[in-house]
Structures are given as C-alpha cells and as structure tokens.
DNA sequence: ATGAAAGCGCTAACAA
DNA sequence: TTGTTAGCGCTTTCAT
C-alpha cells in the first residue's frame, strides 16, 4: 500500500508546476498541447486521481456534487424504487448519493442529517419522520437545499412531493361501499405518520358520506411489521361480527393481511374466502393471487424523479417560493375489491 | 442564506483561540471546564458544525468514515435488502454510505468506483459486473479496502461473499427430476453474470446425473426484465413438446414467469395448470400463489452484514489473506416444485 | 491548559 | 501559456 499520489507528485514527474497539472486535470483551455501530453502521461504512470475532497475545500462555491437521501427504510420496495429514481437523476448530473434509513425515528433522522451536512451535501431529499422539523431550517439557512417526499415536514415550508392519499383512500373505500359493504376494517401503520393519518381520514370520510358510523373494533393502527398485520387480520376476522371488507394502508400491511387471510381460508374459517380487500400501494404478483388484488397504486419512481428534479432546480439557483407537488394515484381493479358481502358474513340482524 | 460558521467564528465569539475550539469540538481531555462551557455556548449560538471535509483533509490517517456500495440495481428487492443491512452495519460504526447502481455495466461501475474514490471512501462493497476488475487493484494499492459480494470479481483476489449457487441449483433441479420430470426448462438472466453461470452449471449437472441430454429449446438466457421472462415462458410452453417443469434463475424472472403461466392458465391452455416451477430467490407472497411457490432462498440481509463485517475488519487493519465466504441457501418447499408431470404434458412417444 | 505556526491537496487571483 | 502566492477549515506539532 503506497501513498496516494498528489498533484505535486505529478508535477515533479512531468517537470511542470503544480498549477499546470491542476489546469490539465480540470480541463482548462489555455494549456499547450505538448504540456497536456506530458502531464497526462505522468498522471497515467502514477495512477493519479484528483482528490475531490481537497478540491471541494478550496473551490469558491463549495459544491460537493453530493446529495443526501434520508428515507424510512431502504429495504422497503417502495422506498427502494424511489431511491433508484433519485440516484438516476443524480448520476445524470454527476452527483453522488449518500443514503440512510431512519426507521421513522426522529433522532436517527437528526443524526443522519447532521452527518450528511458535515460531509457538505449540496441538498437533501428527506422522507420526514413524525415530529418537528424546524432543525432543518438552520441547514437551509447555511445553503443546504431540502426537498421533502412522501410526507410534508412539520414546521417547515419547503418543496414537497406527495400523493393524493386522502382522496385515494376515499375512492377505495367508496368502491367497497358501492359493492354493498358496510363493515369495513381499517388496518394501518403507526398513526403519527402523515400518510397514515391522511389515508385514515379518507376512510372515515367515505364512511361518513354514507352515514356509517366508525366502529373502533374494526380500526387497527400501529401495525409496523408484516407479522403485526397478520395478527391483526386474524383478530378482526375472529370478531363476533367480523368485517366483510378490509382496507389496508400500505404494502407491508397488505402482504401480511393476504397471508393472514390465506391461513384462515386454509383453516376453513367460513366467510374468509369472500372477504373483500383493497390495499394502498401495489405489490408484486398482485394479479396472481386468488382473488387478484385490487390496490391503490402510486408510482414510486415518478415520486423520486420529481423530488430529484425539484432539488436540482434549487441547487441550480431556483429561489422561487416552495412548491407542493401532489402526484395522482389510481385504483387498479383486479377483483379482491369487487367481491360482494355474503350472507354469513353480514352483521347479525337486530 | 448565511455563510456557514467556522471554528474561527466560534473562537472569536467565545474569546478563545481557534485551537481551543478544535479541542472542545473533538472532545479532547485537557480543556478547562469553564472554557468548554464558553465554547459550547458559542457553538450553540452560532449553530456551528464541524466541517468533516476539511477535517478529513488535515487528519493524519485520512479516514473519511464513508464507504461506497456499488451494486447492480437498488430497486431490486434482493439488493435493496442487502443495502439496508450494509447501511445498518455502517451506522453502528459511525460510517456513511455512498450508493450507486451499475445496471451491470462495467463502464458505469468504473466511473462510480472512480467517483467514490475521489471522495475518499475508506472502503468499497462491490457487486462486480462481468469483465475484468484489475482496475480495482490500483485503488487497493492506495489504501481503499474492497469486498466483493454476490459474485467474485474477475482478476481480483479479495474478500468475497457468495452463496452456493451451483449446488443449490443442482438440488432444486434434482428435486424436479425426483418428481418425474425430464423436460425441465432453464430460464435465466444474462449469461455473463457469474451467478447465472453457476446456476446454469448446477442445472446441467443435475440433468447429466440422470443421463438427460440438454435440449437447447428449453434453455433461455438473457432475460433482463420481467417482461422478457413473461415472453420466454409463453414461448417455451408453446413448443410442440413443452417442458413439464421450469427452473427460473432469479426473483425477477420467477415473477415474470408466474405471471406468464397465469395468463396461459386463464387462456385455457392445457397442461399449464400443472407445470412445476422452482425459482431462485424467495419472493413476497410466494406461499399465497396457486400452487404455492417452491424456491431456493438466500438471505440478502445476512449477505450484506457479512460483507460489511469483512470490510470493516479490513478498514480496522486486518491484513490476513483474502477470505471467500460462501453462505448457504435452502430449498423452501411449498408446492409448485412438487407437482408431477401429467400425461398431456409428456413428450410424444417415439 | 492554551496558543502560534505550519501545512493537508487543491484552486483563485494575480504576475510574468 | 505558465508559475507564484495565498488560503479554504481544519489538525498536527511544538511552544508557552
């Protein structure tokens, strides 16, 4: 292991000044062709590569050509797809991407933002956790651009990319109502997450629009893992008056619920074969399930691309007022959301 | 937008020298308690944060506390899960992670490694593309540690984490043979990828062990996208003598094939309901399919964790000879791999 | 316990 | 066209 060569080394090897090497390496125009050749030869022989860290220190605008991506969980397909889209936009512009998962913990988010800023990221794309985000103001004041994605950040007025969560949930639940369901369960993630609140609000609004009162037994929040959802569906389906339809508020929960229903069906529990289901977020193989899964589909790649474009516009100097972009979702009708309630599932007569 | 405060600013505000601020910020022991208090007050008031980039420049060992993760595609659940595991190990040690997808293109990989090294990463975890990786030697000579994961790098002797691809494929195909299949199709990704070669070798070895000759019609390489797999399965099932079993060599292909089979079944094509299938890589909802999907399952999180541990050991100074860790896979038997060939699918009698 | 000087690898600004 | 000087924000080394 040898010491990494510096410009000084290249300059000595090529018999020119350090400054000339700098010019050649940076591709500046006013250098004699023969000099360029000499320097490039030395660069090749020594395996020299410019130190971007040092360059960044001296350079006027202190632009590091790096952005930070702070999201909930990189292992979640939704965020992974979004991350890939962000990464592609970054590469197009010669930017590198630092990435980190917060697990929806505010403290982890703060630490991560702190570390990213210490490494001089030019901008941040953040999936904000629940809680106040005023701490980001200081970062923005010192020049770091910020874009929020999937959720707005509390207490912060910045560019934000979200989808029409509440409206989409309203449409999904309305579709269940249209097929004759009145006992519709809501199975959701932690309720302090903004998207969950919105989707739940859409659920309630749909029920209210038909004059149906919400029933606490049919509402479960805080399902973090697939197994939580699995347990929850067994629980609601075991109620004296079980729901005839389910609305699941993200992909993980949907997956857990499908597994739970599969287990009940196999155990021969009556009625579980015909319970209707609409999930938020599309999932792989949804159309191969029995019945095929109806979902509210959002486009994670488009969300990532949009956020990245907003961020790079800011980095390029855009000073216009913060924008809020709401992308549209669509209900993908495949079958599970169009099942009608069967007699044995109906609520007991008065 | 204000200029970011420096140590000099803090020193002026606290009425001490720059050096004292440096000591306080770095948590050095020999500073008077009152001085610490003064400095910390100034730090808080100015919102000062140490510039890790500058620090890194002067610091003796030039350790950036950053690693680079170079993988095939971050949107692929397999790599996303691996990435999350790497990220967790990095955070535990106070390291940041730069990430990038190569799309299996050597040039993109070279550019990315180059950019990561220019940003002074202490180490790289690389899913190497096909092609010679001797270019990594220069990086390693100048101190960057490298660990390969999922595949070995051609021409490079470094720590590598893989799974028992060939043996696993052999076992999977043998299981199909044990259930009476003789016409088994192989549906694979680009054949220049090492894992694909290994899995194909396992397939061939299993056939050979029963004296079954390989049949070119039943072998399809180069399926990059889900749609390729979809098309390919329609094609093989449309052969005059279609296969009675399929071996799919990664998660994407498996998904595409399941969709293709679903389409055929719906179209009422005879025999497609009973075609056996074993896929490499587990997929979500596999047990909810009809029939439930038998797969070769590997543990992407364990792979990522293992690779990260190897890398950080190297960064910590481990100089022992390169290690090659082979993690084990297991066949998860769920049903689709245990179907027996039915009469109408059998090859025509001579 | 604190400070002054030097310099990490590079570029900005000026000079030749 | 090329070179010289200064200095980015910090840590190292040495002095006090």
UniProtKB/TrEMBL annotation, chains A, B:
PROSITE patterns: HTH_LACI_1 (PS00356), HTH_LACI_2 (PS50932)
Annotated ranges, domain HTH lacI-type: 5-59
GO MF annotations in UniProt: DNA binding
Gene3D superfamilies: 3.40.50.2300, lambda repressor-like DNA-binding domains (1.10.260.40)
Superkingdom, natural source: Bacteria
Claim: Ligase is one of the keywords in the record: no
This protein's UniProt keywords: DNA-binding, Transcription, Transcription regulation
Name recorded for this polypeptide: LacI family DNA-binding transcriptional regulator
